[in-house]
Amino acid sequence: MSKKNKTDVSNQFEEVSLVYRNKTRAIDRPKIESAECAYRILKSTWDQDQISLVEEAKVMFLDNQLRLMSISTVSKGGMSGTVIDPRIVFATALKRRSSTLILSHNHPSGNLKPSHADLSLTKKFYDAGKLLEITVADHLIISSEGYCSLANEGYI
User: Fold this and answer.
1) 89, exposed or middle or buried, with CB in 10 Å at 0-12, 13-18, 19+?
2) How far apart are CA 139 and CA 59, in angstroms?
3) Is the separation of the CB atoms in 119 and 95 below 8 Å?
4) DSSP string, 101-122
5) Quick check: helix, strand or coil at residue 97?
6) Spatial distance between the Cα atoms of 30 and 89, rounded to a whole number of angstroms
7) What are phi and psi of 116, to 5 degrees?
8) Residue 126 has pLDDT above 80, yes or no
């Protein structure tokens, strides 16, 4: 490769730099101390007209003091399922500088029992989180009537 071509290629790509600014002070963010606390906050973000209609997945991103940094809707599906892409979740966690995640999704049927797919997904996220040093603290299944914490049930 000639010197000219090498220079041309290097000018085609941008340098990447990381910049981060918090909009809310850590002291002003709620601390998630239990599954019940996470459930109350998550349920307040759900469209109550849709919670019993379509399945949706949300993730809570927490700092190393378990203070809530943000909540992101990562998937919205149909009446019986939704797909959660780990690449999107962990890319968001890395961008947010999150050290802990709480996964959540609703069951429009109201059944709070975790399915085999729910347990498999939780394990997949847990294992990926270990590699990235991002703790998957819980996975909540939510309905209009209540919730199930996979951590409290011993699955995490």
Assistant:
1) buried
2) 9
3) no
4) EEEEEE-TT---SPPHHHHHHH
5) coil
6) 21
7) -60, -40
8) yes
- Here the tokens at position 21 are 């600014």
- Band (6; pLDDT cuts 50, 70, 90): low
Q: Where do we find the tokens 């996975």?
A: 139
Residue 50 in contact with residue 142, Cβ under 8 Å? no
Tell me the DSSP string of 38-77: HHHHHHHHS-TTTTTTS-EEEEEEE-TT-BEEEEEEEEE-
Cα distance between residue 115 and residue 100, in whole Å: 23
Residue 82: predicted pLDDT: 79
Residue 147's region, left for phi above 0, alpha for psi from -120 to 50, else beta, is: beta
CA distance 28 to 116: 38
**Angstrom distances, CA of residue 55 to CA of 84, 99, 136:** 11, 26, 21
Sheet holding 147-149, edge to edge: 68-76, 56-62, 100-106, 135-142, 147-149
